Amino acid sequence: MLKAQTKTRFLSCLGLASMLAAASPALALDKVSYGTNWLAQAEHGGFYQAVADGTYAKYGLDVTIVQGGPNAAGSALLISGKLDFYMGGPQGEISAVEQGIPLVDVAAIFQKDPQVLIAHPDNGVGKFEDLAKLKTLFLSKDGYLTYFEWMKANFKGFKDEQYKPYNFSPAPFLADKDSAQQGYLTSEPYEIQKQAGFEPKVFLLADNGYSPYSTMITTTQAMIDGKSDVVQRFVDASIEGWYNYLYGDNTKANELIRKDNPEMTDGQIAYSIAKMKEYGIIESGDSLDKGIGCITDAHYKKFFDEMTAIKVFKADTDYTKAFTTKFVCKGAGMALKK
Predict the structure, then answer these.
(1) Taking a C-beta distance cutoff of 8 angstroms, is the pair 319, 304 a contact?
(2) 54 and 172 share a domain?
(3) Keywords assigned by UniProt (predicted)?
(4) According to a count of CB atoms within 10 Å of the terminal CB, is the N or C end of the chain lower?
């Protein structure tokens, strides 16, 4: 009899608990927005992966990816509070420090900037220094003011007379064998191969000493101060997303990328992933043993010193305000690498 009463009470409690659980709303996910620096592509793949495979939701986040593009103003949206995170870069954040704007890099997904110079395969350019022999270099205005100044300061022979504006079309480069053009490792060389039918010479600036991080997770100091837990969860989940994108099933992430950017092709995506792996864009240096996204003071300072030497930044700028290492270099997600 006693056993029967105990069983009845247990079942009653279990039923009450089930009713309460059913009546209670599910814990709400923290809504977070992340603005990218360009249209959806494989270079953003880890973020799309974390949306597609539920990693962000596992970390209690409801993430909206806001596409960038030619007219996007991501940093302005971040400053105004319309974005929670943005795909920034150290040059932008150090410049913000000089203007008294509290933007902070909290993770560096790309350990190497994918910026390249591209040359014809049969014009005698065998190494980076040989680019100085060419008559013309097609560069963007930003490239002319930053890494071209760095090139002139660190290699002999580069001169202002080589510069011509790059209009984001390979046509002028293809028509002139005595030229080189800027590009992104993961995109322009692929397009040139398709259009011209030859494989161009590609020189990654990062492998020749140019040291900025790229594809950052950037936020505001107010976000760090007020929602540090959300920042940590977004960083960790994004890093897991990148490991899963590179080494797991990225089919659904690529579907989301093509949905946001219908012009993106499977061939371009596959090429981009292969080049990111081949050149160690994401996994090299500190990220090899400390995990994707790692930021170190030494790496950040190297870039600051390079840019200070060519007077892009003021020597007395407190560059340490532009980043923090507290959220990264902890090996997050490394167990997912297969």
Answers:
(1) yes
(2) no
(3) Signal
(4) N
Is the domain of 329 the same as that of 243?
yes
Residue 91 burial (CB count, 10 A): 20
Q: Where a domain ends, among 167, 189, 208?
A: 208
Judgement on whether residues 98 and 36 belong to the same structural domain of the protein: yes
Report helix, strand and coil shares of the chain as percent, to nearest 5.
50, 15, 35
301-312 pLDDT, tens digit each: 999 999 999 999
Which CATH number belongs to the domain containing residue 180 in this structure? Answer: 3.40.190
Beta carbons of 96 and 313 less than 8 angstroms apart: no
Last residue of one domain, picked from the residues 208, 238, 262: 208
At 25, the pLDDT band (50, 70, 90 cuts) reads: very low
Chain mean position to CA 286? 16
Q: Is residue 245 part of a domain?
A: yes
Q: Is residue 284 part of a domain?
A: yes
> Are 98 and 136 in the same domain?
no
Predicted confidence (pLDDT) at residue 22 exceeds the cutoff of 80: no
* Residue ranges making up the domain that contains 280: 30-112+212-336
**What pTM does this model have?**
0.90
Identify whether residues 217 and 320 lie together within a single domain: yes
Residue 98: phi and psi, rounded to 5, are: -65, -25
User: How many Cα neighbours within 13 Å face the side chain of 38?
Assistant: 10
Distance CA 203, CA 158 (A): 15
List, in sequence order, every residue forming a beta bridge with 62; answer none if it has no partner.
31
Place of tokens 């994707």: 292
Q: Is the pLDDT of residue 23 over 50?
A: no
Structure tokens at 34: 């992340």
Q: What angle do CA 107, 113, 117 make, to 5 degrees?
A: 170
Q: Which residues pair with 115 in a beta bridge?
A: 184
Does 321 lie in the same domain as 297?
A: yes
Residue 114 above 80 pLDDT? Answer: yes
State which amino acid sits at residue 48: Y
CA distance 145 to 246: 33
Q: What's the rounded Cα separation, in Å, for the pair 297 and 215? A: 17
E strand or H helix that includes residue 219: strand 214-220
> Rounded to the nearest 10 degrees, how much is the dihedral formed by the CA atoms of 198, 200, 201, 207?
-130
